[in-house]
Specification:
Chain B: Pfam families: cNMP_binding. The complex is a heterodimer. By secondary structure, chain A is an alpha/beta fold. Chain A is built from 6 helices and 15 strands. Chain A folds into 2 domains: 87 residues, Translation factors (Elongation Factor Tu (Ef-tu), domain 3, Beta Barrel), CATH 2.40.30; 168 residues, Nucleotide-binding domain of ferredoxin-NADP reductase (FNR) module (Rossmann fold, 3-Layer(aba) Sandwich). In chain A, the strands form 3 sheets. Chain A has a 7-stranded mixed sheet with strand order 10-9-8-7-11-12-15, with helices on both faces. A 6-stranded antiparallel sheet of chain A has the order 4-3-6-1-2-5. By secondary structure, chain B is of the alpha+beta class. Chain B has one domain: Jelly Rolls, CATH 2.60.120. The chains are: A alpha/beta, B alpha+beta.
């Protein structure tokens, strides 16, 4: 967390420096940044990153909570600002505000089975949870990660996925929508993996992140399996601009995604998601 | 394997979980345990759909071959899944290939036997249809989601 100091305007970014960057996929970059006054974050929170002269966007933090000095962001090059961010070299200076938002309630999963359902780039915002679960593995019941990607070449964090799959204390299943001939794993939507997953629905906490349609299917699949809606958590994306609940751009019915979220439980979110164009 | 053991295995599968004991005994008469080594085919496109498989362990790849593209896997079915829905619908013919992608254990139901028992006992037929419909609908929804290409943000 940034030390606010006595008179810091929350809309004024601090200057942060890109210290390392690497290409995860042709259109996805992960970089580490350093920011003065930064003292950590909670899983699921996001920063507002700005490229001067281009714009500012919210980006989830994808690194481990246990290493508070490292600020890690994974960015897909899809718009003008994310493209500018993704193309920054090491040493570049950007603006940073944050961290913001309601984090994943990982503490709610203590002693319970945990199912993490992620799709596409949605693996980045849940990666801090996975680090936490692995670091404190004995504090949780069965841990399952179900990950879906468009194709084998679109799989994020492939090296880490392979490491996690090799562990005996967590279940990791990966599926792709479109297989290549060299692919020998699951083919189909990520929610189809729920049927084969081992968890006690009455004692499960689930974390779901990915494209919104996928999250709706995922949350419904989990409730169909018997997980209580209040035990299913999703991370929402909306047009966040101020990140402090003032501007209203990210309003979702009665809530602001930036301030009241981005993490919500399904019991609260489901009625809102049923409203078209909300 | 004894009939009782097979009944227990069948009732452990989500498709027939909770099925009444009379119905369970009846459908068990059409069932057998099967195993497929990786790379072997459960069936091929165009053949008569004379079996339906409830997967116990392993992974089955559903494939279609296209000229110049080789075989394309469009879906896999794993543990607790069902392979071979074409047994339900005339002309009872497979519309794709099914290959064991891993060592696969399954319950195989003789489709002719099962259809015959459903025809002769409409209550059983209705129960079986009610149980096959949700996975069919789920598969339809999943296919739609797959077609939407939701990751192309």
């Amino acid at each position: 967390m940034l030390d606010p100091g006595p008179h810091v305007d929350p809309m004024v970014p601090v200057l942060a420096t890109v210290t390392r960057r690497w290409q995860d996929l042709p259109d996805v970059v992960t970089f580490e940044i350093e920011a003065p006054g930064w003292s950590g974050f909670a899983p699921g929170q996001f920063n507002m990153l700005s490229v001067f002269g281009v714009g500012e966007i919210p980006i989830s933090i994808s690194g481990p909570v246990s290493d508070p000095g490292r600020i890690v962001h994974t960015i897909r090059d899809v718009g003008p600002v994310s493209k500018a961010l993704a193309n920054l070299p090491e040493g570049a200076v950007i603006g940073l505000r944050g961290p913001y938002g309601v984090p994943w309630p990982v503490e709610r999963a203590l002693g319970r089975d945990v199912v993490v359902v992620a799709g596409g780039l949605g693996l980045a915002p849940v990666r801090p949870i996975l680090y936490e679960l692995i670091e404190n593995r004995l504090d949780y019941g069965k841990v399952t990660l179900l990950y879906g990607a468009r194709s084998p070449r679109d799989m994020l964090f492939a090296t880490e996925l392979a490491e996690w799959r090799s562990r005996l204390d967590i279940g990791v299943e990966v599926t792709v929508d479109r297989a290549t001939e060299a692919w020998h794993g699951h083919v189909g939507v990520v929610t189809s993996l729920l049927a084969g997953a081992d968890f006690d629905p009455a004692a499960t906490t689930a974390f779901v992140c990915g494209p919104e349609i996928m999250m709706r299917f995922g949350a419904n699949g989990l409730t169909d399996a018997g997980v209580a809606p209040g035990d299913i958590f999703l991370s929402m994306e909306r047009n966040m601009q101020c990140a402090i609940g003032l501007c209203g751009h990210c309003q979702l019915g009665p809530v602001f995604v930036c301030k009241d979220g981005p993490v919500f439980d399904w019991a609260r979110l489901k009625p809102l998601m049923a409203v078209k164009e909300l | 394997m004894s009939v009782e053991t097979l009944e227990r295995i069948i009732s452990d599968h989500p498709l027939f979980h909770g099925l009444g004991s009379d119905f369970l005994t009846t459908v068990t008469r059409c069932a057998s345990n099967v195993r497929f080594a990786p790379g072997t085919y459960l069936f091929h496109e165009g053949e008569t759909a004379d079996q339906v498989y409830l997967i116990r362990e392993g992974l089955v790849a559903l494939e279609i071959a296209a000229p110049g593209q080789g075989r394309m896997t469009f879906q896999t079915v794993g543990r607790r899944g069902i392979v071979g829905m074409s047994w339900l619908v005339p002309p009872y013919r497979w519309t794709f290939d099914a290959r064991a992608a891993e060592d696969t254990r399954a319950l195989a139901f003789d489709a002719g036997c099962l259809r015959g028992k459903c025809d002769s006992d409409p209550a059983l037929g209705y129960e079986v249809m009610k149980r096959f419909m949700p996975p069919l609908i789920e598969r339809l929804h999943a296919t739609r989601l797959q077609m939407l290409d939701v990751y192309d943000a």
